Amino acid sequence: MGNLRILVQKFGGTSVSTSERRAQVAEKIIGAKEEGYSPVVVVSAIGRTGDPYATDTFLHLVKGIYPDVPKRELDIVMSCGEVISGVVMVSTLIGLGHDAVLLNGAQAGIITNDSFGDARIVRIEPKNILAHLSEGRIVVVTGFQGATEDGEVTTLGRGGSDTTASALGVALNAEAIDIYTDVEGIMTADPRIVDDAKTLDVVTYNEIVQMAHQGAKVIHPRAVEIAMQKNIPLRVKSTFSDAPGTLVTNQLDSEYIEMGTDITGDRLITGIAHTPHVTQLRVGTVNEQNVPEVDLKIFKAMALADISVDFITVLPTAVVYTVKDDVSDKAVKILKNMGFEVETRPGCAKISVIGGGIAGVPGVMAQILEALTGQGVQVLQSADSHATIWVLVAKEDMIKAVRALHESFRLGR
Ligand code: ADP
Ligand code: MG
Prior knowledge:
The protein is an alpha/beta fold. The protein has two domains: 6-182, Carbamate kinase, CATH 3.40.1160.10; 271-408, 2-Layer Sandwich (VC0802-like). Helix content is 34%, strand content 25%. The protein is built from 13 helices and 18 strands. It has helices spanning 19-34, 55-65, 71-78, 80-95, 127-134, 160-171, 205-213, 221-229, 255-258, 291-304, 325-337, 364-374, 398-408; strands at residues 6-11, 38-43, 100-103, 110-112, 121-124, 138-142, 145-147, 153-155, 176-181, 202-204, 234-238, 246-249, 271-284, 310-314, 318-324, 342-354, 381-384, 388-394. The strands form four sheets. Strands 3-6-2-1-9-11-12-10 form an eight-stranded mixed beta sheet, sandwiched between helices. A six-stranded antiparallel beta sheet has the order 14-15-13-16-18-17. Helix 6 runs parallel beside helix 8 (221-229). The longest helix is centred in the first third of the chain and has 16 residues, at 19-34. Residues 12, 159, 162 line the site of magnesium ion (MG).
């Protein structure tokens, strides 16, 4: 890698959706090049559901012919959106007088396992990318895809292009990984829900892993975890402005600490995230002889069925936990077959209050409850860890709850 200063720049679906926007994307790439960086550009497919070159459009086409298209073939068709987008981006750059080349997942050396539709990157062989970079070319890489050792095309699942960008950043030892999107950075809450949500300047990997896991879809949690392993700075920025965006870093060796600005000290709460479509299950264990063993049996059965569980509360007479709405029927069926009484409460939402400074600070839970009850929001269940407090509410209360908490902790502008 020698003296190359590699910068990974990832552009999401909305950033590449029109030719005007792609011109703005090209400006960011060329700007980086002119600053002396070797840009490695990761692109998502063009547009969203309904758009002609969106991945959903291709899925709709093939599933309309035969609903159970094999997973292997589905991955081949799902990889096309990024290929089209990549050629469009390379053409844009060449049209502007810059040398650029497109590499698909396999050509970029992105080797994955064979879990079609949700493959994991196992390693990256960057020699192709490096060869092009050292000849001064801008390298565009298709996001969201890779290939197995045997050359089978795979896709990486939701948020896959973020993961591609991070993995390339680590493999190439990039100076930074820039995630360009349609908002100015990582904000204190989803700006679609909270009008005065504020862009965060500097945050730690850990805080953002939490926020992303809890529903802040601005960046995929796996992408943050990968960047964190090698401490590569991750920046989330807007394609459509010159705002500095959010820097995600490791607070321990952050230059910001040396500069004397404590990045979490005056900030108890970093942000509020939300996840809708959750079902609460209450499994009665009152008639059981050996309750601990029964509890274990319940969670083993869920694990065996690949159902992820959350919000687990084990009581002497019941086990209460949540699953995603779309697997609740499956979970209930398993439990009933095991002979349990099950009560379900579908249509819940999980609200997460995230802050590296929460641990052991008295009064945070009280403030949460006060803010929610003040708005007439009932808390159905709660849990906490060192950096997050979760509450479960009815989905009708979700927006109200996010806004009330955002307001109560004065996170707004
Ligand atoms: P891209 O296509 O660029 O990957 P995404 O739609 O995946 O973009 O992510 C950007 C969107 O994430 C924003 O438009 C915003 O509505 C949403 N979002 C949710 N939570 C947050 C948050 N805490 N900060 C910023 N954006 C958020
Ligand atoms: Mg995204």
